[in-house]
Design goal:
Largest sheet: 8 strands, parallel, barrel
Radius of gyration: 17 Å
Helix content: 40-55%
Number of helices: 10
Bound molecules: phosphoenolpyruvate
Order of helices and strands: EHEEHEHHEHHEHHEHEH
Length: 252
């Protein structure tokens, strides 16, 4: 299966910095690139996506659930689509934590994004406290069941689920292979019980949390992992190139 790599710049890089990044990335992309790659840029840089090599898609890090209206400072799905955006991250733990995004809001955002033809990267994952109190399965179930409430099976092809243990994001701590495998199984089981075995098998699941070029190989070999959501490491174009290149050279 084709691997998928989603780079999340978060609130980093000005437009001149993004332009330098794009130039570096375009110049060093492997000719044999065989993965889907998406750069989730800050809103202010989405207009620069047109300078990216055509094999790289542009993504946003968030969007509002309403189509338009009095929501000062917010961005709609239409606005993203007009800029050529193809992917949108929804439910990132930083949005859940700092911007009070609830599972209900995330569900609305997913429905709006799908209606506009955007591919959704839905982030789910437990905190350290939840893991320590053995609530990982319960939390993943809550997050996925609410996020997918009212979503039809044929719409799942527009949704990529990123398993991102909150305690691994930006901390330098990577989840163990066993923990990732367990979470992937839980996610597939949920999809199977709410939809079908086929849907569970087809569901694209990424890992995210302090992944670097040093840890990518072993994580991406884990059964059922289809790619990665990369935050900090993606800010260096050469690091991102290393992560995506390995899979272009070795077709898995
Ligand atoms: C993220 O922001 O989704 C992420 C995985 O960040 P990092 O790679 O820096 O942990």
């Amino acid at each position: 299966m084709k691997k998928i790599f989603v780079a999340n710049f978060k609130m980093n890089k000005t437009n001149p910095e993004v332009l330098d990044y794009i130039q570096e990335l375009n110049n060093h992309l492997p000719e044999s690139l065989s993965s889907d790659v998406c750069l989730c840029l800050p809103y202010t840089s989405l207009c620069l996506g047109k300078f990216l090599d055509e094999r790289i898609a542009v993504g946003a890090q968030n969007m509002h659930e309403e189509d338009f209206g009095p929501f000062t400072g917010e961005i709609s799905a239409d606005m993203l689509c007009c800029l050529g955006v193809k992917y949108v991250i929804i439910g990132h733990s930083e949005r859940r934590k700092y911007f009070n995004e609830t599972n209900e809001k995330i569900n609305k955002k997913i429905k709006t994004a799908l209606r506009h033809g955007l591919k959704v990267v839905l982030c789910v994952g437990e905190t350290k406290v939840q893991r320590n109190s053995k609530r990982t399965t319960e939390i993943l179930s809550q997050q996925i069941e609410s996020a997918l409430s009212g979503i039809f099976e044929n719409e799942l092809k527009g949704i990529i689920i990123a398993y991102e243990p909150v305690w691994a994001i930006g901390t330098g701590k990577v989840a163990s292979s066993e923990d990732i495998e367990e979470a992937v199984k839980t996610i597939r089981k949920l999809i199977s019980s709410h939809y079908s075995k086929q849907a569970a098998q087809d569901q694209k699941i990424l890992y995210g949390g302090s992944l670097t070029s040093g840890t990518a190989k072993s994580i991406l070999k884990i059964d059922g992992i289809c790619g990665a959501l990369v935050g900090g490491a993606s800010l260096d174009p050469n690091e991102l190139i290393k992560i995506i290149s390995w899979f272009s050279l070795k077709v898995i």
